[in-house]
Design a protein that fits this description.
With about 180 residues, this protein is mainly α. The protein is built from five helices and no strands.
């Protein structure tokens, strides 16, 4: 019972994180568009910066919550279907890269100097802190998605395993009754 409730609480939390993630994404898109539009007034520019900063702050909070959720999931990996354990490993590998990408966004939004600037910043820093991480994470998740079996397959495997275990227990009980134990 605790397994099902823990999984449903975790699933519910992930669903609840989707709304602030969408809001943060919208804020960053609208803010970035306002900031870098050629016909932006000074007030549009400031409003765009503020929206971008707000979106990035929300992303940082979501990242922290996601890291905590991943940490908790590490202790419950034994409850995970055999093929799906690799997904947790992929998430654990992706977390520091995602953190570096998020750090780059934070530095661009809040520091904004000639190194951390989206328009004319250092290209090497941009590639090493943003682009490579995104490419590696997307490729890793795509490979994981293509190699992990269907959910129904892993569930039927669990049911078969459980059924076999129950049959063995029933045979043992019947043998114990026959021998008078």
């Amino acid at each position: 019972a605790s397994k099902a409730s823990a999984e449903s609480r975790r699933s519910r939390l992930i669903q609840l994180l989707q709304l602030p993630t969408t809001i943060a994404l919208i804020l960053c898109i609208v803010g970035g568009t306002s900031q870098f539009s050629t016909d932006s007034s000074p007030s549009d520019l400031k409003s765009g910066k503020d929206k971008t900063k707000a979106g990035i702050i929300i992303f940082v909070i979501i990242y922290i919550m996601f890291a905590i959720l991943t940490f908790v999931s590490m202790f419950e990996v034994h409850k995970t279907a055999r093929g799906e354990k690799r997904l947790l490993i992929a998430v654990i590998i992706a977390l520091p890269m995602l953190g570096a990408r998020l750090l780059y966004s934070v530095l661009c939004a809040f520091k904004a100097d000639k190194i951390f600037n989206l328009v004319n910043g250092n290209v090497g820093v941009w590639v090493c802190m943003a682009v490579l991480e995104e490419v590696v994470i997307v490729v890793m998740y795509a490979v994981m998605g293509l190699t992990v079996g269907r959910y129904e397959d892993s569930m039927s495997e669990k049911v078969e395993k459980l059924g076999g275990q129950q049959r063995r227990e029933r045979r043992n009980q019947e043998a114990n009754v026959q021998w008078g134990e």
